[in-house]
């Protein structure tokens, strides 16, 4: 419950009481005053319709939200202001403090714009200058240009960071992600909670250093199966993960880039080596991505449970390894299904990827080797877990995966220590003279954990 509700309830209750009192003709309600009523003063009544009360209640407490995750609703404060000032544009709301604050913000924005024009002219002059006349040569010129461009991007953010219209569009989900201010706000929102959760899962499930020696995500990656969002590290039913997921990905830097999506199981039991190995469940490369794109459905790459041939290439990327459902054999611990998003330095050869990782190459997959071999940089991450459940055998049978009848059991390890000799009271009374006390000795040994 929000804090504004208990504060506004007395006001709403008084309005409802005044509405009930006004409906009685024999009772007159006098307006608030600090002086006593005079006999010759006419009485005034306060009338309030039920629609007005409900409207004020809806403005103060907020209307019932059918979908709390809908980003188009905005904040309660802004919805309350819009409900009480109908047919008035947001930037023209009749609040003196609001309008005076907008004047100050507009003046500050004009200063930032003038500074941006000045720095942009400086960049053009530096680009036209000859690097040989500079003390540091071409390296100094490029370093200086990068510094100036970074400063201009920072000024663009500072020019709009306090604009209420910008914040309104961002809250409504209508921000243009090509502009630096909206990317900045989106990254701040992601680093507020989602980034902390995913970094905690990376440490909690030992993704570092089990899979990668060092990794820090820089983009937002969220999972959903059949329209249901999956929190990082959740144990999901094998029948739910039988179909490929949908990824919601958001990058926070400008420009288009090529991405690769890898889904791998890091906990495949290996009885021969008495350890674990890794298996690739999905691999797609050459996926064009920019800040304006948000969702990537792995269904579009053509993975089908009926055994039909998958589509090798689409306009959204190339499929190298089709989707293999997540499964865990009976008796094995939970499997960490890791979803990595890697940024490519250039287009990858899909035929070579299929040759290396499709078919028998699934069971010898290594994300570290993939990163080093193809010069890809991990930028996004998410994961879910898979265990043996009542639907795992059916999933394995439908997709032709062997091993549904195999159950892993822990082998009992016997102690290599020699039996310990009796000491103390027990050793002293092992002679036949104390035979009548042996029953007590056996009882003491049983109670202490002996045999």
UniProtKB/TrEMBL annotation:
Which residue stretches does the UniProt record annotate as biased composition, category Polar residues?
14-24, 43-52
Q: Where is this region: Disordered?
A: 1-53
Give the principal location in a single coarse category.
mitochondrion
Subcellular location, in the record's words? Mitochondrion
Q: Does the keyword Metal-binding apply?
A: no
Arranged from A to Z, the UniProt key words for this protein are: Mitochondrion
This molecule's function is given as: Component of the mitochondrial ribosome (mitoribosome), a dedicated translation machinery responsible for the synthesis of mitochondrial genome-encoded proteins, including at least some of the essential transmembrane subunits of the mitochondrial respiratory chain. The mitoribosomes are attached to the mitochondrial inner membrane and translation products are cotranslationally integrated into the membrane.
From the Swiss-Prot or TrEMBL record, give the protein name. Answer: Large ribosomal subunit protein mL38
């Amino acid at each position: 419950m929000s804090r504004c509700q208990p504060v506004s309830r007395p006001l709403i209750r008084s309005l409802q009481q005044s509405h009930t009192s006004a409906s009685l003709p024999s009772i007159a309600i006098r307006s608030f005053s600090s002086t006593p009523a005079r006999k010759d003063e006419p009485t005034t009544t306060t009338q309030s319709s039920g629609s007005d009360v409900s409207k004020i209640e809806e403005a103060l407490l907020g209307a019932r939200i059918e979908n709390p995750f809908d980003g188009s609703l905005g904040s309660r404060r802004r919805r309350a202001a819009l409900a009480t000032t109908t047919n008035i544009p947001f930037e023209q709301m009749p609040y003196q403090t609001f309008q005076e604050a907008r004047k100050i913000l507009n003046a500050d924005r004009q200063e930032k714009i003038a500074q941006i024009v000045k720095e942009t002219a400086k960049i053009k002059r530096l680009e036209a200058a000859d690097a040989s006349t500079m003390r540091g040569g071409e390296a100094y010129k490029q370093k200086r240009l990068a510094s100036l461009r970074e400063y201009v991007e920072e000024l663009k953010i500072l020019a709009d960071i306090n604009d209420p219209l910008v914040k309104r569009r961002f809250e409504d989900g209508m921000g243009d992600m090509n502009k630096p201010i909206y990317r900045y706000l989106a990254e701040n929102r992601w680093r507020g909670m989602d980034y902390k959760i995913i970094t905690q899962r990376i440490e909690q499930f030992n993704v570092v250093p089990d899979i990668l020696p060092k990794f820090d995500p820089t983009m937002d990656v969220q999972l959903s199966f059949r329209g249901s969002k999956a929190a990082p590290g959740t144990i999901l039913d094998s029948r739910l993960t039988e179909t490929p997921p949908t990824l919601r990905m958001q990058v926070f830097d400008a420009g288009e880039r090529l991405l690769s999506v890898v889904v791998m199981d890091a906990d495949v039991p290996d009885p021969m080596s008495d350890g674990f190995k890794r298996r690739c469940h999905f691999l797609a490369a050459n996926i064009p991505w920019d800040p304006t794109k948000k969702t990537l459905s792995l269904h579009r790459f053509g993975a089908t449970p009926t055994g039909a041939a998958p589509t090798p290439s689409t306009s959204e990327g190339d499929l190298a390894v089709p989707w293999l459902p997540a499964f865990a054999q009976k008796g094995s611990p939970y499997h960490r299904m890791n979803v990595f998003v890697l940024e490519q330095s250039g287009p990858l050869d899909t035929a070579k990827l299929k040759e290396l990782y499709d078919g028998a190459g699934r069971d010898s997959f290594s994300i570290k080797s993939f990163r080093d071999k193809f010069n890809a940089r991990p930028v996004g991450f998410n994961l879910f877990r898979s265990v043996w459940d009542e639907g795992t055998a059916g999933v394995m049978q439908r997709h032709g995966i062997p091993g549904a009848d195999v159950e892993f059991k822990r082998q009992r390890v016997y102690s290599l220590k020699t039996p310990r000799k009796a000491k103390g009271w027990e050793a002293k009374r092992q002679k036949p003279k104390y035979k009548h006390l042996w029953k007590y000795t056996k009882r003491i040994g049983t109670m202490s954990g002996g045999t």
